Fold this sequence. Notes:
The chain has 317 residues and is α/β, with parallel strands linked by helices.
Amino acid sequence: xxxxxxxxxxxxxxxxxxxxxxxxxxxxxxxxxxxxxxxxxxxxxxxxxxxxxxxxxxxxxxxxxxxxxxxxxxxxxxxxxxxxxxxxxxxxxxxxxxxxxxxxxxxxxxxxxxxxxxxxxxxxxxxxxxxxxxxxxxxxxxxxxxxxxxxxxxxxxxxxxxxxxxxxxxxxxxxxxxxxxxxxxxxxxxxxxxxxxxxxxxxxxxxxxxxxxxxxxxxxxxxxxxxxxxxxxxxxxxxxxxxxxxxxxxxxxxxxxxxxxxxxxxxxxxxxxxxxxxxxxxxxxxxxxxxxxxxxxxxxxxxxxxxxxxxxxxxxx
Length: 317
Ligand code: NAD
Ligand code: UDP
């Protein structure tokens, strides 16, 4: 098949492209390189099945494709809050452009949505039926509400125009290729520990998240895209950890002498998050296989090798 991956030069998009290229598909990677990098897709640059287009999805584009994985959108709070209006435009105009493309060429459309549509949840763990508790006017709203309207658009194109759609709600995912300045918690802690700096825990560290290793997530993407189920489906690892536990785990693996510093909690930071993955298990026969300790080790090794090349590593255990 000819498959378009928007945001393909980013963290998740590039892992998805690796998997789709290995399966023998023709891939068009579309990215504006806001948080994505050519080095993530370098290995495919000269491959005859691979094409890279620098393009901003807030502008329309005409292409002929069979499937669209729509991932383009900054995912880290630091990056999506840098230009919140642009984040809304990417989610609203960008998603509408990609749905319009899917409608015109009759391509199957896959939306990378997020657990953030549940906001600061009053229901725990979160099932797909839960409608969420999202602040419409806060610092996270450009992303949370942006993704909610992206879901709405996807379901309206499905009902009104018969576009074949799939919607995944992704829970916190980590792994190799995350940016050193990504700003999300796993990469921050690993970079800080490798540089011999204190780990920055926001608040008292009692808030929880559930961390999914990237290869598990991509496997869930492929299963959903090729199933008959429209979604939304939660894909994430139900293992739930406090942020302090995560800091201690990274510290113990990189540098047991590292300090942990407590910083103010950002506004609207969700108190807890854990996916109910019953739907993914029963409808897609999917469940995660990589435990946090193993995934962290693979991620730390990747950061260590990238950062030692640029002379940034202080701790070499
Ligand atoms: P990322 O920032 O690494 O990737 C996003 C990619 O989209 C980047 O390559 C960026 O340059 C590109 N992009 C951003 N705006 C664009 C635009 N207007 N036009 C074209 N390209 C644009 O983030 P990621 O972690 O790979 O996330 C990918 C998708 O998955 C996002 O939609 C994100 O919301 C979703 N998601 C990720 C997580 C996670 O834990 N990683 C969790 C929930 C949802
Ligand atoms: N966090 C932290 N230290 C950091 C970065 C993040 O304690 O250096 C916390 C953050 O406040 C949140 C959790 O870790 O409670 C996850 O943050 P992230 O930005 O990774 O994802 P999200 O909040 O979007 O789930």
